[in-house]
């Protein structure tokens, strides 16, 4: 009797958290960490540009006290301000510091969404996929529908077939309910020579749909592209450009010791960036794999 009860309560593998969803949550956390880490150098760059635009001499603009404090920080003339005014100024300053990472996260998510929405067309063009008509290769349609019914996918995804006979892979992609199963042209031979491998290939890809992994997977890829090409790359270029500007300014002013200090400061800064950015980027690299 006990054996019969246990046999009725079979284990559902889809009841466990999907590994892709866990990685997706880690990726979102890593992107937020990266945006917060980037906020400080962006704030320093902004204050430097504003200082130079207000006519502040270059030697004064690059002082740490100028770069690390807001431009409108209170000085000796404002020491008589009331406690309420100083408290309000402090709150405004902290809100300003929080605005940069918030805006960075928002921009990254918007750009990632645009890239994510474009991924079906990008994959179709890259793999040269065309829709497989119902009259073409009915065995493939039958196998896809059979596996989809077996694991509870309704309706089954749209089947598209690639050109040639060399590629024997498959890839599930799409947005929302408009899901596509892209098959390499070589699966036609695989279906004849090794039907068990062909069915295993379908099970692997359709399991991603059953686990609802498609959205997180391709949004993770979009976040990765946004992080590298839109955020980290331009930031590194800006920092190197400003370093070159500082070096030229030090040479023109004859401040050799300042130039040496700049080299040391850049080395320390790059080490700091490697540590601060390295952890989120390593997490993103580890979580972007499917």
Automatic annotation (TrEMBL):
<feature type="transmembrane region" description="Helical">
    <location>
        <begin position="258"/>
        <end position="286"/>
    </location>
</feature>
<feature type="domain" description="Peptidase M48">
    <location>
        <begin position="138"/>
        <end position="237"/>
    </location>
</feature>
<dbReference type="InterPro" id="IPR001915">
    <property type="entry name" value="Peptidase_M48"/>
</dbReference>
<dbReference type="GO" id="GO:0006508">
    <property type="term" value="P:proteolysis"/>
</dbReference>
<keyword id="KW-0479">Metal-binding</keyword>
<feature type="transmembrane region" description="Helical">
    <location>
        <begin position="21"/>
        <end position="42"/>
    </location>
</feature>
<protein>
    <recommendedName>
        <fullName>Peptidase M48 domain-containing protein</fullName>
    </recommendedName>
</protein>
<dbReference type="GO" id="GO:0046872">
    <property type="term" value="F:metal ion binding"/>
</dbReference>
<feature type="transmembrane region" description="Helical">
    <location>
        <begin position="98"/>
        <end position="118"/>
    </location>
</feature>
<keyword id="KW-0472">Membrane</keyword>
<keyword id="KW-0862">Zinc</keyword>
<keyword id="KW-0645">Protease</keyword>
<keyword id="KW-0812">Transmembrane</keyword>
<dbReference type="GO" id="GO:0004222">
    <property type="term" value="F:metalloendopeptidase activity"/>
</dbReference>
<feature type="region of interest" description="Disordered">
    <location>
        <begin position="63"/>
        <end position="83"/>
    </location>
</feature>
<keyword id="KW-1133">Transmembrane helix</keyword>
<keyword id="KW-0378">Hydrolase</keyword>
<feature type="transmembrane region" description="Helical">
    <location>
        <begin position="228"/>
        <end position="252"/>
    </location>
</feature>
<dbReference type="Pfam" id="PF01435">
    <property type="entry name" value="Peptidase_M48"/>
</dbReference>
<keyword id="KW-0482">Metalloprotease</keyword>
């Amino acid at each position: 009797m006990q054996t019969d009860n246990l046999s009725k309560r079979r284990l559902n593998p889809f009841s466990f958290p999907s590994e892709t969803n866990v990685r997706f949550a880690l990726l979102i956390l890593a992107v937020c960490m990266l945006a917060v880490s980037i906020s400080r150098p962006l704030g320093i760059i902004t204050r430097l540009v504003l200082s130079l635009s207000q006519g502040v001499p270059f030697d004064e603009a690059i002082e740490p006290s100028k770069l690390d404090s807001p431009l409108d920080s209170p000085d000796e003339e404002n020491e008589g301000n009331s406690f309420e005014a100083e408290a309000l100024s402090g709150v405004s300053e902290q809100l300003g510091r929080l605005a940069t990472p918030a805006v960075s996260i928002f921009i990254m998510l918007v750009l990632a969404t645009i890239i994510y929405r474009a991924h079906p067309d990008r994959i179709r063009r890259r793999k040269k996929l065309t829709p497989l008509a119902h009259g073409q290769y009915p065995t493939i349609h039958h196998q896809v529908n059979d596996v989809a019914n077996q694991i509870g996918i309704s309706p089954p995804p749209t089947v598209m077939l690639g050109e040639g006979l060399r590629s024997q892979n498959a890839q599930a992609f799409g947005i929302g309910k408009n899901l596509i199963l892209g098959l390499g042209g070589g699966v036609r031979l695989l279906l004849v020579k090794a039907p068990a491998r062909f069915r295993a290939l379908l099970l692997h890809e359709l399991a991603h749909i059953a686990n609802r992994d498609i959205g997180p997977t391709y949004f993770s890829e979009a976040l990765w592209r946004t992080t590298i090409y839109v955020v980290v790359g331009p930031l590194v270029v800006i920092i190197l450009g400003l370093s070159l500007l500082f070096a030229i300014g030090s040479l023109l002013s004859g401040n050799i010791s300042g130039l040496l200090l700049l080299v040391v400061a850049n080395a320390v800064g790059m080490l700091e960036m490697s540590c601060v950015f390295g952890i989120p980027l390593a997490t993103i690299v580890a979580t972007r794999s499917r």
